[in-house]
Structures are given as structure tokens and as C-alpha cells.
Amino acid sequence: MPSSFPHHPSPGRDAALDLIKWLALLTMLIDHLRHAWPELYFLYVPGRLAFPLFCLAIAANVARSRADDASGVTARYLGWLLLFSLVSEWPYRLLVPTAESLNVMPTLVLGLLIANAVQRVDIQARWLGAGALATAVLAHEWLMFGMFGALLPAAFLLALRGSRARWLLPMLGCLAANYWAPFYADAARGDPFAWSVLAMCLFAPLLGLLLLRCRPPFPVPPVRRWAYLFYPAHFLVLVALRNL
């Protein structure tokens, strides 16, 4: 998740983008409360906002880099992402000992590389993106949100670069990334909770894209590199609270 927290290449900051990052952090925390207190399982619904908002923030930052810029964004942030992918795994396993996937950071690492390959024209970026895509396909079962989650930042990037018709790409991509057969079976039976989850997955990208186009009428504090640490730290805090 902190992969969406790079500094902007331009001197100024985008308040709308910072707002999206804050919302992503907040909804992530809300979602994970259910691991400490299982009776809060209904928080799974608003929690579906977090991942697409992080992916949108990645896409927005990649879009700010010039397609012919040899430095791109990958070299600047990839080390931080890889580091916190490793650092976060143990705290994640403490909070979710039955987890069948890695923490979300490896998915976002691959997503950044794939989106960067879509944005840039140099051969190095394209090869890194192709490698990331192949890894996402092969590691689909171990990635949180699977290969479709790794493709979501690129889908957002295409939506930002094209007409509003392209907004369907991240909307459908978010549904695919959150696919879980029992929810579709429950939805087919008319279960309100299942329909709430599917609706949130479908419309979360649309909400993010609309927010990105707006100027917040209030000051938004910047989200800086401390957000990398927030990801593993909030796991440890929730584990401590659960054990009280």
C-alpha cells in the first residue's frame, strides 16, 4: 500500500491525490479491524475501497512521469516497496495467521512495474513490466488480489489517459481482483451483504477517479514516507489490542 506514497515529481502537491491516500489508509485500517474483532466482519464492505485507492495513487504518480524519462518512478520507489514487502510479512502473519496469500505489498510492487511499462517507452521498463506480468500470472495464487490486482494500476493509468469509457477498465478489474466464488453464489441467492461487497468493488474505482478530479475545499495534510512504516506498524498494534 505505501507504494502509492511517492513524492510528486513536480514542486507542488496534489491535494486530491493526498486525500485519496488518506482515504486508502483509513479504509485499510477499518478493514483490518475485523481481524482483531471478528464481530466487525461487516467492515469488509468499506474495506474494499482501500486497495483500488492505493492502485489509483500509484497510477496517478506514474502518469506524472514523462514517458521518455529514463529515470521514471520505478528506481525511486522500488527499493522502499521491496523492503517493506519483506518487513510487513511477519506482522501480517501475526494478525492473519491463516492467510493464504502474501501481504498486499508484493502485488503493488508488480502493479507499479506493469504500470510503469505502460507509461514509458524504454526497453528496460518494458522488460521489467513483462517480467512483473509473468510473475503475477505465475504467482496468482500467492498474491493478495491475484494477477488482476497487479494489473489494476495499469488499468487506472489507461483510464487516466483516455476517455471516460476507459473508466470501465479499473471498475471491472477491481471486481476481478476481488473475485471469490462464495460471494457470487451468495449474490445469486440475493444475499444483501454479498451484493454490498460486489457493488463496493465495482464503484470504488469510479469514486477514486471522481475524487482525483476534484479540488478538496479544505487543506489536506501530505502523506509522506511515514506511510510505508504505517503498514507493518498497524498490524502490530492490532495484534497487541487483540491480545489485551
Automatic annotation (TrEMBL):
Can you tell which superkingdom this protein's organism belongs to?
Answer: Bacteria
Q: Name one Pfam family in it.
A: TraX
Annotated transmembrane regions: 41-63, 75-92, 142-160, 167-187, 193-214, 226-243
Keywords, alphabetical:
Membrane, Transmembrane, Transmembrane helix
> What is this protein called in UniProt?
TraX protein
Q: Which organism is it from?
A: Pseudomonas straminea
Q: What's the source species' lineage?
A: Bacteria, Pseudomonadati, Pseudomonadota, Gammaproteobacteria, Pseudomonadales
